Predict the structure.
Amino acid sequence: MASKVTPWYKKKRVSQVKTDYACHHIHCVLRTRQQTAARFGRKSSSTSTSVSKVQAQATEAMAEQTYTIPVFRQRTVEEGTEEYQRVSTNVEKGLTVIQDELYRMRLATKATMDSLAIQREVKDMMYRRRDTLEEIPRMPDFMVALRPHTVWEKTPVKLYCTVEGTPRPVVKWYKGGVAVDPLNAPGRYKIENKYGVHGLIISRCVVSDTAEYSAVATNAHGVATSKATVTVKRPAGSGESCLLGLVPHLTEIHSSKLEVSLLDRFSVSFGVEGGSIGLVCTMVVVPDLPNLPPLAQWYRDDKLLTPGKLAEMSVGGGAARLTLPHLAKDDEGLYTLRIFTKDGTAEHSAYLFVSDAAPSAAGAPGAPMSVKAYDVNADYVLVAWKPPNTVNEAAITGYFVDRCEAGSDTWVQCNDAPVKVCKYPVHGLKEGRSYHFRVRAVNSAGVSRASRKSDKVTALDAAESERLQVIKIEGKYDIVIKDDDLEGYVTIPGEPVDVHASEVLKSYVVLSWKPPSPRGRAPLWYVVEKCLAGTGAWQRINTAVKLHSPRYPVFDLQDGLKYQFRVYSVNSYGSSEASEPSEPVQKVEEDGTELPVGVPSAPGQVVATRNTKSSVFVQWQPPKNLKNLMGYYIDGRVVGTKDWFPCNHKPFKHSRFVVHGLIPGESYTFRVQAVNVFGLSEESQESSPIAVQPALATPSAPFGITLLSCDGSSMTLAWKRPEHCGGSRITAYYIDKRNADTLTWQEVNLTAVAERICTVDNLTEGIFYEFKIQAANMAGVGVPSAPSAPIKCEAWTTEEPGPAYDLSFSEVRGQSLVLLWKAPVYTGTSAVTGYLVDMAKKGSSEFVTLTQEAVSQRFLQVTSVEEGETYVFRVRAVSAKGVGRPSRLSEPVCAKALPGTQEIVPGVDEVTGDVFLSLEACEISETSTFVWSKNYKAIGDCPRVAATAKGRTSRLTFTNPDKGDLGRYSVVVTDTDGVSASHTLTEDALNTMLELSYAIRHPVVPLKHGLSYEILPKGHVRFWAQAVKLSPSASYRFIVNDKEVKTGEGVKISHDVASGVIQMTVDTFTRSNEGTYTVQITDGKAKTQSSLVLVGDVFKVALKEAEFQRKEHIRKQGPHFSEYLYFTVTEDCTVLLACKVANVKKDTSFRWYKEDDEIVPDTPPNVVSGACALPIPLFSRKDQGVFKAVLSDDRGKDTSLFDISGKVFDDIINALAQNAGASASELVLQCTPEGIRLQCYMNYYTEEMKTVWKHKGSKIASSEKMRIGGTAEMAWMQICDPSDKEKGNYSIEISDGVQTHTRAFDLSGQAYTDAYEEYLRLKAAAFAEKNRGRVVGGLPDVVTIMEDKSLSLTCTVWGEPTPEVSWFKNEQEVACNEHTRVTFEGGKFASLVINTVTPDDSGKYSINVRNKYGGEFVEITVSVYRHGEKLPEPKLGQPKSAAATPVPPKSPATPSKTPTPTPSKSQTPASMRSPTPASTPVPKSPTPTPKSPTPKSPTPTLSRGVKSPTPPRFMKSPTPPRK
């Protein structure tokens, strides 16, 4: 941080960057050393006689002015008017002379300092190196743009701007678009150009000069323009009015006439990418005019900042503010506020650090910065940037360049592969469009965050402006023409010239050339060809791209080969001749080095020196090979650690840097890397470790001189220590005195005073004295304090005590602080009994007494403070005679803890067991000491405690702590900003630490597990204990019932050092082993033992378990069950009784039993597989019982029982219910003649499952109205004879004991209406089917009869009402006559009798039985054969279905009737003689004889028939197939 005031007439145009160390006080330091030489001679016992060169330089950096103008104030009447008049008369003349001399000396000193500063700056500028980017060709850029002006008529106006570019741009001035020519108006315009600052001066403005002026800067790489408006005003009443509006009110006071004094200045700041930060500097302005704030300018690294989205500026309200709302590493740098004042300028500078934001991926690099575009053309631009610092991340392997059109948020990646250098030629742009660019770094861990986008760049032809010419007509008219107008009519352009490689890198080569002349008016583009040098085999390289710019990057060149290039100019009329070939170009030399340069060499020696308590000054030697250096990166690390941290995040240009934000007292080492466009150099050698301490200098002046007592011949004085100790301990104070009416100072003490209290003797009573004090350290004697106020030597005779003194603060926190003071030296006529403490806010005179009663101790913890507020205190001593005079006001204290403040931590040393209190200081200096106190009384040398310090940590160790050590302990770290803390040691806390101390001093072997027992598989018993840690030298023994047991028959003792396990194994555990078991362990000094009591019930349990394990071991010698019977349920709801067997062989037998009845499964068990299972399909209550599995062979037998009853049965049912519930379908509506049925299909259903049907949330019980049932595949509930009461929501709940599966159906509305109609239809159809006419039985299918016999076809019919019966022969109704007789008796028996049959009676007969509900038609085939003929084989007819109601397609298929084949081989019936006259009916088969055998089926229904002539409508099946 640096502050200075520079006169306006000596203000420099380009100021040098200032660092935190001072180097312009040499003459002050020399004068200081001359003034103190004599004092050093007489005070050699307390100060050093010589200072080294480094210390002298540090002293110069920290030196302050050694002269102080005494401040004389008038004494009041109470201090002695008479004495004052006498002194004033004697010294008035001499004082005037002295003051004049001091004023003259001050002016001379100031002039000398300014001269030295200018000389130093000139010297620095001689060695200043150009910026790396200045070596890169770039288009013009206005660093300082034109500013608008409003002036009165006949007054001059000056327009200035600063422009940069490479090569240096040419600036032309325009007024309203017309070029300004000073020759046309001599004396009116003047154009200047000095050191890059361009100016246009209008000498005497007139109203017609009101216009927009522009400065156009042009070079080979682009054009830039800056515009500003000049408004010329004419005073009212003086003729012509202003053309642009009313005349504004202009004040006569200009900002340069204001007196500005800076107050609170912004300090070194730290920000993070993506965040925001504000820099504020408060000030006092005289006069303070709200409409006329002072002119303030902000600079970053000596470059003027302009207001915008990235930098918001405001001045007013007594403060100048700069807000950076979107931080990026581009914003890092030295910020300077420059305010124009009456005496020149007031300036203040401080550094802003901007660190990397969190990476997008762990280990990814930081974002690049300073992205800029150069060499802008119609379709080409060169993008350059600065690389980020890589400290602990992997090295950067390349960069991606993105572009975005202005006004859009869509970014397009320009390069497919990462480019390794920090610049990239982007081509393929569209002419006339504006672009932004950004860059991302790549390493092995990922891609970095994107950099801040570049400024807007417009792709324009840079050569267009060069083709413009301005011609003067008659000396006053300007005509702008193009070169096209002078060339005449040109069609085919000329060839390009000067083809060369402007950029030659390992990644690419950039070709450049000059446009052709003549060019022609048609749009022009270029064709580029290449060939290997010397071959002449030319090849076009921009086949897919039209080039409009005289630049083109080539990427696909092979390493090690030389190429030549030539260019053609092409327009719509044709192509020019080829240009001259370029010189041979080679990307990489034969040795593989990159052209033209690579990364710079490593910087030289790095030297770190002390600067302030939180910063270090680092300087280094530049690298031998600079190679277009961009700057340096500085890294640091704490001594003793391996992790480096970046000190700066943007390349720093100079070879010296101040590293801020370090921990006071910590030691660091530093290294430096150089940076250019090719990347980072190797790291330099590390600097020597340096502790963060202020630079060594003499201490500042003491202050606060206070009179504590006076007896008439002596005075006792006290004072406060200097604010700055100068980097070393203050060892002495020197006091001077003088008579107030003289100017000569006299030394009071020849020997050093170590304390801040001193009694001055040999004084004259009644005389006024003044005192001043100087502090001394190893660097010398510091500047003296300001003279005290004149003090009268007069004996104190008051009865009240004098003032307390030396008020100080400790343990300052946000909500409390501790105030300490010392007892008054003058006690009055009685002893001091207490103290009253008053407090007031800073700047207020209203004091509040904090103690209602006087406190006896000389400290007070104040808790009534507000965090962030500043307070002052005073103390008044109280005695029996009254309240004494108040002390001097304390220094203002802010109720706010220091950053990183730690509290005292009590603890116990893990090695020695000592009880201690410890504090780690957040800040420390080389001269700091830890001062411990008990109840705020310094402990000093005390046998009960011992204080030690190491680094930033101090420890107070108690020797033999007891109740006498209880109390409040505090510690203060000297030479810091108030680092202190306290801790109250209570009895409970002390007892806890004493117990821990005893455990450490009397160690035991810690056990993870005490002595325990474990039953092993063979029935052996293992006794074991486990220690946390055992050494190889550990010893132990087992004691059982007071007798030591050692390894022997049946007992084995062992241990394992790695695991800490000690064990004893007893092979045979019997009743004799009951008793107490103990293990004793010794490991060095530590001992322990653990016991286990095995008696009574505990022993019986262990013995039973041991016997069981022994039997198990014997059982497992033969075939045995490794897992006894258990049940599982498969997906198809089959219950499996399973078990696992072991130690079996092929002839091992496995049998299943239920209630001692053997079960023979369909699949024999395979014992060799190791698992056996018994399936129980369709599990229900009938499967309850005790199941047994028996495994046996010649080696033995093993049995497993499984009782399926009670809870086991319920568990199986629940498992089935879980499977069924999970597979349950939604409820299905099914109508039947009996009612409406709801069905739920599932994998398996049994009535033992916990299923509940509900209607409207109420449980349904099975009844005549509501029938509940189910099959193996479904559960159903039927509503018989439904009515409207049965409407509503129905649900079924299937519970598996854990979860309830619910399926629901809403039987209401249209669903109920449709179901009810279907039910009525099915009911009517069933009634009709039941009562229709039908043939019950008695008729055969085929009848074979001999002629002349009588045939009687008789059958039983039924129907309600009684049906009508008709007989037919060959579909003709049979009439009743003598030959044929038809009868129907009793409404049941129908007969057809044919008397004396003849062959003519053969045929197909049928009977039709019908009533109003339907009927049935049955056919009979009659064959009549003659006498003597063989009995013909019966001819089978086609079967007819007797069912009146057809089966719907969805119904499950019913078993088909199996036809009864006839033994005849012929299908044609033949006549044969019957041995008896009786007819021999042949049964009629329902189906034709199949060609292949058909398996047997259930017995067919006796009734046969055909479909009814009026069949009923189809209906749904009562049991439709599952979905």
The chain has a mean pLDDT of 81.
